[in-house]
Amino acid sequence: MSAHIINGRELADDLRAQMKDEVSKLHEQGIYPSLTVVLVGENPASLSYVKGKERASKKIGMHSNLIQLPASTSEQQLLGLIDQLNNDTTVHGILVQLPLPSHISEDIIIEAISPAKDVDGFHPISIGRMIAGKDTFLPCTPYGIMTMLDEKGITVEGKHAVILGRSRIVGKPIGQMLLNRHATVTYCHSRTKQLDRYLQQADILIVAIGQAHFITDKQIKEDAVVIDVGINRLEDGSIVGDVDFDSAKEKASYITPVPKGVGPMTITMLLQNTIKAARQMNQVTNGSTSRDG
Ligand SMILES: NC(=O)C1=CN([C@@H]2O[C@H](COP(=O)(O)OP(=O)(O)OC[C@H]3O[C@@H](n4cnc5c(N)ncnc54)[C@H](OP(=O)(O)O)[C@@H]3O)[C@@H](O)[C@H]2O)C=CC1
Ligand SMILES: Nc1nc(=O)c2c([nH]1)NC[C@@H]1CN(c3ccc(C(=O)N[C@@H](CCC(=O)O)C(=O)O)cc3)C=[N+]21
C-alpha cells in the first residue's frame, strides 16, 4: 500500500490561519509581533528563504524587517547590529540566516542574540532548556516535524527513531526532542559505518543531509515513517529531497514530500516562536503554548 503523504503546505496554511487571528488579537492589545531577519552576503538560496519568511510574516499581519548586509561585514559590525536589535523593544524575534561568511563565527553571533528573542532556538540557553524539557523557543525545523507527527497522531514513545545528519539546526535537536518524547534514538552521520544496518531498524527515519535522493525504498523498513528534510536543487531547477520519494512512498506508512513537506512547517514555527516572544515580552500569558514537551 502507498504511504500517507503528510502535506506540510496544507498543515502550515491551517496553522497560519489560526496565527493570523492570534496576531490580530494581540494588535487589539497594542502588541505588534515583529521579526527581524539578518542576511549577510548574497547567497541566492538564502535570499530566497528569507524572502519566504518575510512573505509568510506579512500574510499573517506580522511586522517583518529584512536587514541585508554585504559579505564583507565584520564580526564586530554584526555584533553591533545584534546589540542594537536586542535593545530595540519593538523587535521581538531576531533570526540571523545561516550559513554566515567564514570570517564570522556562527557560535559568537548566536550567543550574542538575546535568549528572549532567540526565535530560531539556537542559543545555548535555548538548547539547554530544550534538553532539560523546559519551556523555551524550540528550533523551527524540529518543532515543525514534531507538529506534523502530532497532527497525524503518530506515536513516538517506544519507537526507534533514526536520525541521518547531526547539524545544529536539524539533526541534533530533532533527536533530542524525540528522546524527550520517549523514542529510542540513533544518530547517523558521515562517519557512520554500515549505515544500512541502522536504517533498516528505523520506525521513524529523519533524513537531513543535503544529498539528493540518497535514501531509496531498499534502505527503509516496511511501514516506516519517513521525514525528508533535505532541499536539493537539481540542474533543471527542480527541488528534491534526500529521499527518493517515488520508491519510498510504496514502502513507508507515512512520508513527507519535498517541496511542500517540512519546509513550510519550518517557516510556520518561526512565526509561532515570534508570537510567543511578543507575548512573553509583554507578559501576556495565555495562548502560545509549546506544542512539544
Ligand atoms: N526543510 C527545511 O526546513 C530545512 C531544510 N534543510 C535542508 O536539510 C539538509 C541538511 O541541512 P543541515 O541540517 O543544515 O545539514 P549540514 O549540511 O549542516 O549537515 C549535514 C549532515 O549530514 C551528514 N551527512 C552528509 N552526507 C552524508 C552521507 N553521505 N551519509 C551520512 N551522513 C551524511 C553530515 O555528517 P557530518 O556531521 O559527519 O559531516 C552532517 O551531519 C539540506 O539539504 C538543507 O538544505 C535545512 C534546514 C531546514
Ligand atoms: N538561522 C537560520 N534559520 C533557519 O531556519 C534556516 C537557516 N538559518 N538557514 C537555511 C535553512 C533552510 N531553511 C528552510 C526554510 C524553509 C524552506 C521552504 O519553505 N521550502 C519550500 C520550498 C522552497 C523553494 O521553493 O525554494 C518547501 O520545502 O516546500 C526551506 C528551507 C531554513 N533554514
Automatic annotation (TrEMBL):
<keyword id="KW-0554">One-carbon metabolism</keyword>
<dbReference type="Pfam" id="PF00763">
    <property type="entry name" value="THF_DHG_CYH"/>
</dbReference>
<dbReference type="InterPro" id="IPR020867">
    <property type="entry name" value="THF_DH/CycHdrlase_CS"/>
</dbReference>
<feature type="binding site">
    <location>
        <position position="231"/>
    </location>
    <ligand>
        <name>NADP(+)</name>
    </ligand>
</feature>
<dbReference type="GO" id="GO:0009086">
    <property type="term" value="P:methionine biosynthetic process"/>
</dbReference>
<keyword id="KW-0658">Purine biosynthesis</keyword>
<dbReference type="GO" id="GO:0004477">
    <property type="term" value="F:methenyltetrahydrofolate cyclohydrolase activity"/>
</dbReference>
<dbReference type="GO" id="GO:0005829">
    <property type="term" value="C:cytosol"/>
</dbReference>
<feature type="domain" description="Tetrahydrofolate dehydrogenase/cyclohydrolase catalytic">
    <location>
        <begin position="6"/>
        <end position="120"/>
    </location>
</feature>
<feature type="binding site">
    <location>
        <begin position="165"/>
        <end position="167"/>
    </location>
    <ligand>
        <name>NADP(+)</name>
    </ligand>
</feature>
<dbReference type="Pfam" id="PF02882">
    <property type="entry name" value="THF_DHG_CYH_C"/>
</dbReference>
<comment type="pathway">
    <text>One-carbon metabolism; tetrahydrofolate interconversion.</text>
</comment>
<dbReference type="InterPro" id="IPR000672">
    <property type="entry name" value="THF_DH/CycHdrlase"/>
</dbReference>
<dbReference type="GO" id="GO:0035999">
    <property type="term" value="P:tetrahydrofolate interconversion"/>
</dbReference>
<comment type="function">
    <text>Catalyzes the oxidation of 5,10-methylenetetrahydrofolate to 5,10-methenyltetrahydrofolate and then the hydrolysis of 5,10-methenyltetrahydrofolate to 10-formyltetrahydrofolate.</text>
</comment>
<keyword id="KW-0521">NADP</keyword>
<keyword id="KW-0486">Methionine biosynthesis</keyword>
<comment type="subunit">
    <text>Homodimer.</text>
</comment>
<keyword id="KW-0511">Multifunctional enzyme</keyword>
<dbReference type="InterPro" id="IPR020631">
    <property type="entry name" value="THF_DH/CycHdrlase_NAD-bd_dom"/>
</dbReference>
<keyword id="KW-0560">Oxidoreductase</keyword>
<dbReference type="GO" id="GO:0006164">
    <property type="term" value="P:purine nucleotide biosynthetic process"/>
</dbReference>
<comment type="similarity">
    <text>Belongs to the tetrahydrofolate dehydrogenase/cyclohydrolase family.</text>
</comment>
<dbReference type="GO" id="GO:0004488">
    <property type="term" value="F:methylenetetrahydrofolate dehydrogenase (NADP+) activity"/>
</dbReference>
<dbReference type="InterPro" id="IPR036291">
    <property type="entry name" value="NAD(P)-bd_dom_sf"/>
</dbReference>
<keyword id="KW-0368">Histidine biosynthesis</keyword>
<protein>
    <recommendedName>
        <fullName>Bifunctional protein FolD</fullName>
        <ecNumber>1.5.1.5</ecNumber>
        <ecNumber>3.5.4.9</ecNumber>
    </recommendedName>
</protein>
<feature type="domain" description="Tetrahydrofolate dehydrogenase/cyclohydrolase NAD(P)-binding">
    <location>
        <begin position="139"/>
        <end position="280"/>
    </location>
</feature>
<dbReference type="InterPro" id="IPR046346">
    <property type="entry name" value="Aminoacid_DH-like_N_sf"/>
</dbReference>
<dbReference type="GO" id="GO:0000105">
    <property type="term" value="P:L-histidine biosynthetic process"/>
</dbReference>
<keyword id="KW-0378">Hydrolase</keyword>
<keyword id="KW-0028">Amino-acid biosynthesis</keyword>
<dbReference type="InterPro" id="IPR020630">
    <property type="entry name" value="THF_DH/CycHdrlase_cat_dom"/>
</dbReference>
